[in-house]
Amino acid sequence: MFADKIRVLRKEKKLTQAEVAKEVDLSARGYQDLELGAKPRYDALLHIADFYDVSVDWLMGRTDNPHAHR
């Protein structure tokens, strides 16, 4: 679920994995691993949520509202 959401968000912004990785302070491989299903570290999760302007709860599938608890 998380992997699918960040992949869709990235593609909507027409960005490469490497471009997003740089913005969220991850290696290109680290971001690629997240899109392939790796579990994110908490700090990476926060950076990704901020970058895409969505809530952590939505990214992790705990709510259907992408802006809950922002």
Automatic annotation (TrEMBL):
Domain called HTH cro/C1-type: residue spans: 6-59
Is NADP there in the keyword field?
no
From what superkingdom does this record's organism come?
Bacteria
Concerning InterPro entries, the annotation shows: Cro/C1-type_HTH (IPR001387), Lambda_DNA-bd_dom_sf (IPR010982)
User: What is the name listed in the Swiss-Prot or TrEMBL entry for this protein?
Assistant: Helix-turn-helix domain-containing protein
Annotated PANTHER family: HTH-TYPE TRANSCRIPTIONAL REGULATOR XRE, TRACRIPTIONAL REGULATORY PROTEIN-RELATED-RELATED
Q: Which residues form a coiled coil?
A: none
- Keyword Manganese tagged: no
Q: Which UniProt keywords apply?
A: DNA-binding
One Pfam short name: HTH_3
Which GO-annotated molecular functions does the record name?
DNA binding
